[in-house]
Specification:
Blueprint (H helix, E strand, L loop, with lengths): L24 H19 L16 E4 L4 E4 L2 E3 L5 H21 L2 H6 L1 H17 L2 H9 L5 H26 L5 H9 L5 H19 L2 H8 L2 H4 L10 E4 L1 H4 L23 H4 L20 H13 L6 E4 L4 H5 L7 H5 L2 H23 L3 E7 L6 E2 L5 E11 L5 E8 L5 E4 L6 E4 L3 E11 L4 H4 L2 E10 L5 E9 L4
Antiparallel strand pairs: 1-2, 2-3, 4-5, 6-8, 7-8, 8-12, 9-11, 9-13, 10-12, 13-14
Helix pairs in contact: 1-4, 2-16, 4-6, 4-8, 6-8
Length: 477
């Protein structure tokens, strides 16, 4: 039997990426955005908002049990989900707008995966050192005490961040101080602990070990962003006509070659969180975080060359810049038919939501006629129809609602459970009230097949009114 060698592996192991620390305007902008977004996420559930004694005082609350969404002074009921749908449409149009104007700025600056990855890398750098130190630690085969201590410290720190992330998320669904106390005393609902456990694990995994893989393989946006971009989109790119051929700065070698501004220092590659080389052209992996711009500008300043070898640019400016002409004004790139269309659609949806928000009433009703049977003949020959009327009181206090009808004068209104035409509706609730409409024997509505009728409800405190149209069924065909 002849010796056979094992078949070589067709797959290469993923090499971890260790971005080098960089400073500059874009890196500073990312720090500011990270601080603001994380601050909003972690602190928002603790903001208080006084809505009265009977309503929750948490400014932002998704009350699933009460089927309400509270956002400061705005309260969204289940039947008003169109507000949430409108906000999602605006978010999508906003993403299209910014991508068509500035490329993947969402991915590079405000995407949760980017923000938490930046935070994890910052903690990693504090504990293990900058790029070279982390590379040496990674390539060290022996697990000695120092390496174990650094790794354990880093992983515990990441787990604490993940725990804070999961903890902040569940605070959006219940009163934050009460839930925090229940979590500490082990009296919270198992769903809260399960949610925190899942989010802790996913944050730890995605931010610590699957950083660029999430952006490249799990996120669908890199594959559809091209539909939002064109040659006038400003995105991070490399001025190849200025930088090539790479070598020493503007120094003629023995062969007489005049090198470009790029000295092939690899600074742009070493700071990239995706581990790509922007000098190879536009790539799906690029999240346009612009850290390579900061790194390259720093090198250009040191060698006495103008900034902008790597910069935000549009492909349509390439021919002019190669010819030595200045690029098109930035606003001419941003204000073009595609972006104007997205801005117009975004504004229309936003204006529609604001209009719907300001005209909505604080009292509402829905009317559902009883269909089995459609009418009942009483002992005196009168015809009675039954309706289930749901009265919504969106005020921060109990209100008395008075019901009345408008239609044929012969018809009269009765409320089940009371001899009056008014009913008390508790604060911030929808009360189901059974209502009867009776037409006397021999009257036109009792003999007709269907008679239109309007049910009115009036708030006796401020006089606000609402109505719904329905029909009264008689004995006629």
């Amino acid at each position: 039997m002849s010796d056979s060698k094992p078949a070589p592996s067709l797959y290469a192991a993923q090499e971890p990426i260790f971005p080098r620390r960089v400073s500059g305007p874009f890196r500073n902008l990312k720090w500011y955005i990270m601080a603001v977004t994380l601050g909003i996420y972690y602190l928002t559930p603790w903001i208080r908002w006084d809505r009265g004694p009977s309503l929750p005082d948490q400014a932002v609350l998704l009350d699933l049990a009460g089927r309400r969404f509270y956002f400061f002074w705005i309260e969204i009921w289940p039947h008003e989900f169109y507000f949430v749908a409108g906000l999602l449409i605006m978010a999508g149009l906003g993403l299209f707008l910014f991508t068509s104007a500035l490329g993947r700025v969402w991915c590079g600056y405000t995407c949760p995966q980017t923000v938490w990855t930046d935070l994890f890398i910052l903690v990693e750098r504090w504990i293990e050192g900058d790029r070279n130190a982390r590379l040496r630690l990674h390539r060290q085969k022996k697990m000695d005490f120092r390496k174990a201590r650094l790794r354990l410290t880093k992983w515990v720190s990441w787990l604490l961040i993940g725990l804070a992330t999961g903890g902040a998320w569940v605070f959006y669904f219940a009163d934050a101080p009460t839930l925090a106390y229940d979590l500490v005393t082990l009296n919270a609902h198992p769903v809260a602990y399960t949610t925190m456990l899942v989010l802790t694990g996913t944050t730890f995994l995605f931010g610590g070990f699957a950083r660029e893989q999430i952006c490249i393989y799990a996120c669908p946006w890199p594959r559809i962003q091209a539909a939002m971009m064109d040659e006038d989109t400003l995105t991070v790119g490399y001025r190849e006509w200025r930088g090539e051929p790479r070598g020493k700065p503007r120094k003629t070698d023995e062969a007489g070659t005049v090198h470009g501004d790029c000295i092939d220092c690899m600074a742009c590659v070493n700071v990239c969180p995706m581990g790509i080389d922007i000098r190879d052209g536009q790539q799906m992996e690029c999240i346009t975080c612009a850290l390579c711009i900061d790194a390259c500008d720093d090198v250009m300043a040191k060698i006495g060359k103008p900034r902008g070898l790597i910069d935000y640019m549009a492909l349509s400016d390439e021919a002019e810049e190669r010819a030595g002409k200045p690029p098109k004004n930035i606003w001419k790139h941003i204000l073009r038919p595609r972006t104007i269309m997205y801005t117009s659609l975004w504004s229309l949806v936003g204006a529609g939501l604001l209009f719907a928000l300001f005209i909505r009433s604080d009292i509402e009703l829905t009317v559902a006629p009883e269909r089995n049977p459609t009418f009942v003949t009483l002992s005196d020959g009168a015809i009675r129809n039954t309706y289930d009327v749901r009265l919504r009181n969106k005020h921060g206090e109990d209100r008395v609602f008075k019901l009345s009808i408008k239609g044929d004068p012969a018809m009269r209104l009765q409320l089940e459970g009371t001899m009056y035409h008014s009913v008390n509706v508790p604060v911030d609730t929808a009360l189901l009230q059974r209502v009867y409409i009776v037409a006397p024997k021999g009257s036109t509505p009792s003999q007709a097949g269907s008679t239109p009728v309007r049910i009115w409800v009036e708030d006796l405190i401020n006089g606000e009114r609402a109505h719904k149209d329905t029909s009264f069924n008689g004995t006629g065909d």
